[in-house]
């Protein structure tokens, strides 16, 4: 897991903006929008696991009559559903107003207007493409690390198997 500097960092993701920006999620969303939402959460929870960056995903529920703001944990990440008449952008802006000068907050959205507001409120913007590339890089790094560990384990298991084989061979005599 990552070091201390990443503990002070928060990645805030405009969920529906990312779903509508990433080709792999856009295609799923055409068939099943809920499945695309779950796939995004899976990708971000795995990214969080390997990067150690606190991740918050915000989904608009502003058009859902009578909806109240809801927060839940999903495999280590925080998922926020906004309340009726509250856009994800507004929720993110409030968060930046409260924490933008205290913590490093990076906001992933490809909404140009929102990117300008993010910068003016102390946040750092990250486009949907930049987030996708960052996640792909982190996952590649994690895969290479796993491969090295597995190779080491295979070598150790090979040595152990040789020792066991020789002991059994000697025992048989």
Features:
173 residues; alpha/beta; 6-stranded mixed β-sheet; 6 strands; 60% helix; 17% strand; elongated; disordered N terminus
Description:
It is a single chain. With 173 residues, this protein is an alpha/beta fold. The protein has 7 helices and 6 strands, in the order αβαααβββαβαβα. It has helices at 4-7, 15-19, 23-31, 33-51, 88-99, 112-120, 128-172, and strands at 9-14, 54-59, 70-74, 77-81, 104-108, 124-126. It has a 6-stranded mixed β-sheet. Strand 5 (104-108), helix 6 (112-120) and strand 6 form a beta-alpha-beta unit. It is elongated, with a radius of gyration of 22 Å. Mean pLDDT is 85; it is low at 1-5.
Taking pLDDT < 50 over at least 5 consecutive residues as the criterion, the unreliable ranges are 1-5
Task: Please provide the ordered H/E string of secondary-structure elements.
Answer: HEHHHEEEHEHEH
* Main beta sheet strand tally, sense and closure: 6 strands, mixed
Spatial gap, N to C terminus? 49 Å
Strand segment count: 6
Task: Give the number of helices.
Answer: 7
Report the portion of residues in β strands: 15-25%
Percent of residues in helical segments?
55-70%
**What would the principal axes of the Cα set say about the shape?**
elongated
Give the C-alpha Rg. Answer: 22 Å
Give the neighbour order of strands across the main sheet: 3-4-2-1-5-6
Secondary structure category = alpha/beta
What do the pLDDT scores average to?
85
């Amino acid at each position: 897991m990552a070091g201390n500097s990443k503990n002070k960092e928060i990645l805030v993701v405009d969920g529906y903006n990312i779903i509508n920006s990433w080709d792999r999620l856009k295609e799923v969303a055409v068939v099943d929008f809920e499945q695309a939402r779950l796939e995004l959460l899976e990708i971000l929870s795995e990214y969080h696991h390997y990067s150690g960056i606190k991740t918050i995903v915000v989904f608009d529920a502003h058009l859902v009559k009578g909806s109240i703001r809801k927060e839940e944990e999903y495999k280590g990440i925080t998922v926020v559903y906004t309340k009726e008449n509250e856009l994800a952008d507004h929720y993110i802006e409030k968060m930046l107003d409260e924490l933008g000068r205290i913590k490093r907050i990076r906001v992933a959205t490809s909404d140009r207007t929102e990117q300008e507001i993010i910068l003016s409120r102390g946040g750092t913007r990250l486009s949907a493409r930049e987030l996708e590339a960052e996640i792909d890089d982190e996952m590649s790094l994690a895969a290479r690390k796993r491969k090295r560990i597995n190779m080491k384990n295979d070598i150790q298991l090979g040595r152990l198997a040789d020792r066991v084989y020789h002991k059994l061979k000697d025992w048989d005599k």
